[in-house]
């Protein structure tokens, strides 16, 4: 017989296991309630929400698959709010692995894919982020979940503007905005407004961008999302900086700092102090010392960020401030860090490549200040080469109105003056070479003259570009003029005939344009023309040719485009113009009529143009604000 002590031990172990099982069952039953509490709590207290959620970390195996997905989704969301993107990526991945056990798709899988995608995006892996977002959108669409479909469109719309595809971004984000408007989800509405604000900011539409940011702030406040609301305020402040309203930007940044709490992420604090530094640097009564102090505050948070873009931003700001303080050796250290990060700068979007050119130009200035003239000349030459490469494929579009008539008239005179300067510099160079016997003096003078020569070359290139643009660009709208339009369209027409490609033409006419000129004046008419051109030009592809055909009429040549796709593009343009909010007195709406024709047996381009115009007349005759096609 067993000893009494053994019986007591067995009974004790049995009772302990029963207590554990009972406790485990209670925890499992409580999970759904706690998950709901964490969903709300993480809006205001990330630390406490994380603490409550992780109490279930050791009982995950006893939870259902759906409960596991909820756990990993909430955990990844909290980690992203804390800017722990590598951890969030790992968490989302764990949840997706568990999700494979499901017999049918769950909307939680879509949410986890978006979270993993955002982690990749934040870590700088745009191709992988795009792949994740597309997978998540496919799941959301298969389940007809309106909110998650909108989020997928927002994610892909952001990727589009990050890769300079503004037309696609505009379409995707507007679709998401419209879907969000059909829901009661304030967070979704805030997110859609935020992304549209960023897009219009990149398109240099400051007023419209600001309006979207202000709306996003209201939606986030209504949803009780303080951190997201602060992000909207940050965007508002950055818009003030771009519009050179530095004191207003500083006021907004101070509001964010005053309202920040323990949950405010290191990334958010970094961007706020970085913005404060830049505003103090650029304002009218520039305060370099204050800018440097705010930059040092930003630096404290830099060590916690995983975002490559933030590191680039900091080193760029640091270099600019240190240059003003004349601490040139430190400037070169900051620039070296930027160059190390941007080893593959040629693969970057254009706006980042512009920033890279600016930083190399700053490097040339530093060398000049340090009297390292040979290095200054070599670096300046590199700037010229990079600038040429940056704009070698630039088309004839302009985001804002251009005033080129005067520049066109003066271009030839300027070229003549610059060529004369070039000759004088060359003569001075030869004279210096003959008269100066001491090698050191000769090198200094040579370098100085080389810098001057480089400056002349830059001016020559700039004037030649202005002349080229003046010959090809409509000075009012910044789009291709009729001459350029017909030349490019003829080339596309001939290629389509030889290669048997599709080719479509679009004729766009502003409805009631004569009435606008007669009643409101030609200055208002010019603004309408410019805005319609801007909207239209940014809705077509890079290889399409958008230009002003005459008066209030535009033409678009669409190579490799069949009638169906051309009509879809035309409808997008018509809708975008009709839905645009006009900031002009006495104008609420502007509409356009569009005629579309596609290449069939036309022997000449003019035949295709006439057919497109016939469809335009049909659109006008049937009530205007329409697309008609043949």
CATH class (first level) name of the domain at 482-629: Alpha Beta
By CATH, the topology of the domain at 482-629 is Alpha-Beta Plaits
The helix content is over 70%
Quote the average pLDDT: 81
How many helices? The count is: 25
N-to-C CA distance:
101 Å
Q: What fraction strand?
A: under 5%
Structural class: mainly alpha
CATH superfamily of the domain at 482-629, please? Reverse transcriptase/Diguanylate cyclase domain
Catalytic activity: 2 GTP = 3',3'-c-di-GMP + 2 diphosphate
Keywords: Coiled coil, Membrane, Transmembrane, Transmembrane helix
Cofactor: Mg(2+)
Enzyme class: transferase
If you had to describe this structure to a student in words, what would you say it looks like?
The protein is built from 25 helices and five strands. The protein has helices spanning 4-41, 46-53, 65-81, 85-99, 107-122, 126-142, 146-162, 166-181, 186-202, 206-223, 226-242, 246-259, 266-282, 288-302, 308-324, 328-341, 350-369, 373-391, 405-435, 439-472, 482-499, 513-520, 522-537, 563-579, 605-621, and strands at 503-510, 545-550, 553-559, 592-598, 627-629. α5 packs antiparallel against α6 and α8 runs antiparallel to α9 (186-202). The chain has a five-stranded mixed β-sheet with strand order 2-3-1-4-5. Residues 18-26 and 393-413 have low confidence and may be disordered. 72% of the residues lie in helices and 5% in strands. It starts with a helix and ends with a strand. The chain is globular, with a radius of gyration of 31 Å. Its EC number is 2.7.7.65.
């Amino acid at each position: 017989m067993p000893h009494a002590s053994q019986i007591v031990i067995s009974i004790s172990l049995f009772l302990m296991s029963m207590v554990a099982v009972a406790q485990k069952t209670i925890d499992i039953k409580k999970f759904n309630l706690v998950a709901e509490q964490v969903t709300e709590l993480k809006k205001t207290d990330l630390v406490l929400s994380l603490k409550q959620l992780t109490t279930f970390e050791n009982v995950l195996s006893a939870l259902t698959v759906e409960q596991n997905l909820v756990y990993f989704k909430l955990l990844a969301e909290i980690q992203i709010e804390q800017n722990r993107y590598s951890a969030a990526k790992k968490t989302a991945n764990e949840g997706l692995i568990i999700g494979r056990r499901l017999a049918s798709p769950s909307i939680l899988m879509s949410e986890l894919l978006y979270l993993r995608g955002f982690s990749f995006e934040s870590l700088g892996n745009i191709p992988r982020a795009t792949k994740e977002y597309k997978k998540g959108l496919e799941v959301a669409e298969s389940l007809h979940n309106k909110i998650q479909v909108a989020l997928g469109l927002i994610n892909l719309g952001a990727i589009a503007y990050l890769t300079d595809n503004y037309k696609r971004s505009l379409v995707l984000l507007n679709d998401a905005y419209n879907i969000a408007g059909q829901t009661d989800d304030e967070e979704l509405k805030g997110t859609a407004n935020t992304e549209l604000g960023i897009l219009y900011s990149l398109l240099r539409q400051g007023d419209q961008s600001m309006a979207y940011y202000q709306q996003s702030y209201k939606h986030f406040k209504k949803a009780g999302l303080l951190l997201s609301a602060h992000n909207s305020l940050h965007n508002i402040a950055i818009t003030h900086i771009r519009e050179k309203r530095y004191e207003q930007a500083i006021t907004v940044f101070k509001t964010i700092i005053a309202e920040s709490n323990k949950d405010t992420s290191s990334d958010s604090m970094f961007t706020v102090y970085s913005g404060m530094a830049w505003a103090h640097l650029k304002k009218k009564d520039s305060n370099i010392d204050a800018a440097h102090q705010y930059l040092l505050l930003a630096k404290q948070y830099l060590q916690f960020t995983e975002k490559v873009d933030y590191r680039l931003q900091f080193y760029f700001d640091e270099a600019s401030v240190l240059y003003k303080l004349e601490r040139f050796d430190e400037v070169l250290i900051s620039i070296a860090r930027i160059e190390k990060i941007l080893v593959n700068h040629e693969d970057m979007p254009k706006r980042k490549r512009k920033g890279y050119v600016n930083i190399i130009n700053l490097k040339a200035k530093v060398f000049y200040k340090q009297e390292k003239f040979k290095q200054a000349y070599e670096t300046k030459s590199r700037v010229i080469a990079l600038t040429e490469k940056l704009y070698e494929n630039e088309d004839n579009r302009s985001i804002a109105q251009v005033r080129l008539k005067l520049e066109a008239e003066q271009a030839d005179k300027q070229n003549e003056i610059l060529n004369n300067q070039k000759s004088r510099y060359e003569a001075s160079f030869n004279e210096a070479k003959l008269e100066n016997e001491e090698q050191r003096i000769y090198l200094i003078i040579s370098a100085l003259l080389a810098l001057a020569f480089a400056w002349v070359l830059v001016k020559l290139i700039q004037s030649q570009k202005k002349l080229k643009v003046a010959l090809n660009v409509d000075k009012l709208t910044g789009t291709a003029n009729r001459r350029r339009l017909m030349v490019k369209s003829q080339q596309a027409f001939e290629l389509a005939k030889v290669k048997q490609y599709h080719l479509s033409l679009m004729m766009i006419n502003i409805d009631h344009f004569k009435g606008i000129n007669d009643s409101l004046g030609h200055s208002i008419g010019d603004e309408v023309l410019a805005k319609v051109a801007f909207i239209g030009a940014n809705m077509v592809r890079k290889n399409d040719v958008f230009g002003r055909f005459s008066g209030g009429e535009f033409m678009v040549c669409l190579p490799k485009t069949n009638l169906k796709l051309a009509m879809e593009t035309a409808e997008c343009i018509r809708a975008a113009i009709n839905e645009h909010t006009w900031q002009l007195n006495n104008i609420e709406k502007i509409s356009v009529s569009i005629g579309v024709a596609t290449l069939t047996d036309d022997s000449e381009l003019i035949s295709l143009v006439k057919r497109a115009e016939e469809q335009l007349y049909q659109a006008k005759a049937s009530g205007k604000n329409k697309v008609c096609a043949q």
